[in-house]
Write a structure and sequence with these properties.
- The chain is an all-alpha fold.
- The chain folds into three domains: 1-176, Growth Hormone, Chain: A (Up-down Bundle), CATH 1.20.1250.20; 188-243, no CATH class; 246-495, Up-down Bundle (Growth Hormone, Chain: A), CATH 1.20.1250.
- 77% of the residues lie in helices and 1% in strands.
- The protein has helices at residues 2-13, 18-24, 31-56, 58-76, 82-110, 113-143, 155-158, 160-174, 188-211, 216-239, 253-283, 288-294, 296-316, 321-340, 347-375, 381-422, 426-434, 459-493, 504-516; strands at 146-147, 150-151.
- Strands 1-2 form a two-stranded antiparallel sheet.
- The longest helix is centred in the C-terminal third of the chain and has 42 residues, at 381-422.
- The two termini are 38 Å apart.
- Residues 1-499 form the Major facilitator superfamily (MFS) profile domain.
- It is found in: Cell membrane.
Length: 517
Amino acid sequence: MMGMFLASLDQTIVSTAIRTIADDLHGLSEQAWTTTAYLITSTIATPLYGKLSDIYGRKPFFLAAISIFVVGSVACTFSTSMIELAGFRAFQGIGAGGLMSLALAIIGDIVPPRERARYQGYILSVFATSSVLGPLVGGFLAGQSMILGIAGWRWVFLVNVPIGMIALVVVAKVLNVPHTRREQRIDWWGAVTIALGVVPLLLVAEQGQSWGWTSPRSLSCYAIGVVGIVVWLFVERRMGDAALIPMRLFSNKVFSQTSVLSVLIGMAMFGGMMMIPQYLQIVKGASPTKSGLMMLPLMLGMMVTSIVVGRLIARTGHYKIYPVIGTAVMIGAMLLFHFRVEWNTPLPETMGYMALFGVGLGLTMQTLTLSVQNAVPPQDMGVATASATFFRQLGATAGTAIFLSVLFSTVKDNITKAVTAASHTPAFQQAVAQNPKALSGANSSSVLSDSSFIQQLPDALAAPFKVGFADSMHLVFLIASCVAAAAFVLSLVIKEVPLRKVSGIQAQAAAEADKSA
């Protein structure tokens, strides 16, 4: 839970601070790089941690993940540009890839699936609690100009250091999971080729709009990505059981279907989680701290629902119904954001939709991991859990890249249209006459590097900029609802496997006893 807290805190603490960071480093439209770089490296590292921990044990790799994460956090505080920050975030992501997946794998080792839902409810409540604290702390720190002589937003990364050190001490002292070492080759070529396949496709998802979807750079990324994935599949098939993600797992229908579902849920989740703070800060003019407080309904909805669902699964042994309901609720929430949330929509109404989205996430997230862990043999617990996390992170990375690309590629045209429409209104003309220099240097292009000027404009002049952003966000929420709809259809056909009543360690011990007998 300490490791999970560290990883999930960092995912959310940056969300409310990123606009302030991007404005300070003059790169609002480049903010996708900082998020995507972190998600790319954590996504690629995740299955490697799962495989290595299956062979050598969870503890050394959990400690290594925390250490790398803390060093990366310190490095982030020295950033002088958004590209530099993206590089340090990429290093930080290498550690983050092991934190969440290994925490869930350790729970799988020591707790039977029937009881695991309850414990994963607690784990997800930690995730939700840090998700509540993250935006608040991130917003508060980003809102301070200086703390102890250091820019406030840099403390967003520094705050990980004491938490990480405590986690290191706790894990080193009390985490002692029994492990029988299995001699097996390490699939380094699998790690290299999966990176070769995934990274170019994620890059083109993010940059395709600015490069041009059929430009030479985009076509090169498509080609390298496809070749990388084909080579990866070939390598994994040759490696057999030693593969990073053994291909035999995909013959398990539950595993393969849940993996696809995890990709879709990751995309839809980050579509909402990335856009809502942007809406609150840019459109509503909320400070980073206030936007963190305004995210509370979403986080509380997710936290309460995950705990309740965990207890219900432990009591009944049934879990399939929850992702079905959860994805349906997510569709509804995203459509409400698309159709109902305008630049001037009252905040209580928007916060109600946030709570609904949180409930959908709480119903869905833990059941996917539980379903995968329960469907595979106990000796594959680590690689299966890491795979579930990997596919969710893959979806999140692609979703973040695509959704931010859609937002920033459409916002210029939408602002231009809104300004043109508003320029004919008496209120806008009067505001321009009273503040003739207010819009000097402020246009649809300048907003992509620094959006802070919007809050300094008179209401009549700021309105078109806010309308432009809100209209672009509508498109993102519509795309996210379509992704959630695909997840809903898939969740209907996934077979429910009865939950085992013994832990992963007990099941492995029983299997080994049968072999020796």
